[in-house]
Amino acid sequence: MTLDGWRARWLALRNRVLASPAFQRGAARFPLTRPIARRRARALFELVAGFTYSQTLFACVTTGLIDALANRPLATNEVAARTGLPEPGADRLLKAATAIGVVERVGDRWTLGKHGAALRGNPGIAAMVAHHAALYTDLADPVALLQRGGGGGALSRYWSYAESPGAGGAAEVAAYSRLMAASLPMVAEQALAAYPFARHRRLLDVGGGEGAFVAAIGARVPRLSLALFDLPAVAARARESLAAAGLTDRAVIHEGDFTRDSIPQGFDLISLVRILHDHDDEVANALLLRIREALPPGGRLLIVEPMAQTPGAGPAGDAYFGFYLLAMGSGRPRTPREIISMLHGAGFRSGRPIATDLPLIARVIVAER
Ligand SMILES: C[S@@+](CC[C@H](N)C(=O)[O-])C[C@H]1O[C@@H](n2cnc3c(N)ncnc32)[C@H](O)[C@@H]1O
């Protein structure tokens, strides 16, 4: 019998035991197995009830509760006044938020808990939570979503390019561009700590959004010349925000559609930040090919995004991004191994992962032409 055959047999036996009510009762009663039984019961309950925690967090963010508690502890009636909730509603929310670590009780008042404080320090997370309204709508019937093969809902309308590559006028790109700019700092931080940008002279960020990535890298690497490439409506937003950051003379903005147009040349480093996972294999492979053609020999491509099967962050890849991108209507989370194999397929000489501090937020792969 093969190793997988033995494993399947062992798993069948284990699962029969775990499913048995008598075993479950015994494990919960016996003092030595009780802690394990409690841990397992709690973990299963988290799976059963997780969406209520997410919606509690959603209410904390969208009522302004997090901001309200940021400066000083408040009494329930003050929270009610600040959030516009009736007092019993505020009380219910505060208790729920306390139970999940977003709020903490101090005497008869309330302040931010550990998660609330971390959230306050990363405005990008609050923006992500708020935009989950669209994902939540699409996931109301996950089976229907799986059956129709994804897309066709609120999230695919939010990401206008998802189901119509290259699409998006000024109105369509505004919300996602703002969201990306708000959540970019934590991603840029991972890339900056992991990769020596100073070894390069000219950086082009493909799908660079409003320019938050080039601005973040440019601030730490003063001699690097900067450029980005994005759809015309997004490039227009980048022009404004880079001008506001005083970078007009340092950053060149190229507009185009990377599913049709070639990628500008003359850069020894090209980055793809949270781009590849957005696209199905056909589009992603063609993009990698275009980027390889644009790079000089020895030029590098940096891929920065959350990836599948990340140790310690497994559910974030295949569960969260798996369903997120399905609802969006294009793309899939990929493992570093899958990305590296795509890079080789596109003719890159080498591709290797570089460790980041918080791989849950982003992992990095560097490839050389
Ligand atoms: C998920 S966002 C990432 C933005 C930015 N890199 C970041 O991490 O904040 C994807 C970006 O790719 C751009 N994009 C999508 N399809 C594109 C296309 N066909 N050509 C050029 N840019 C495109 C979008 O406009 C958007 O700015």
Concise structural overview:
The chain is α/β, with parallel strands linked by helices. The chain has helices at 3-19, 21-29, 34-62, 65-68, 76-83, 87-99, 114-121, 123-138, 142-148, 154-158, 170-194, 212-220, 232-244, 281-294, 314-328, 336-345, and strands at residues 74-75, 103-106, 109-112, 202-206, 225-230, 251-255, 269-273, 300-305, 350-354, 363-368. It is globular and about 70 Å long.
The percent of residues in helical segments reads 40-55%
Give the percentage of residues in beta strands: 5-15%
Tell me the series of helices and strands, N- to C-terminal: HHHHEHHEEHHHHHEHEHEEHEHHEE
State the low-pLDDT regions, or none.
Answer: none
Q: Give the overall silhouette.
A: globular
Largest sheet: 7 strands, mixed
How many separate helices? 16
Radius of gyration: 24 Å
Instruction: Give me the secondary-structure category.
Output: alpha/beta
Strand arrangement, major sheet: 6-5-4-7-8-10-9
Overall pLDDT confidence: 96
Distance between the termini: 44 Å
- Unique ligands: S-adenosylmethionine
Number of strands: 10
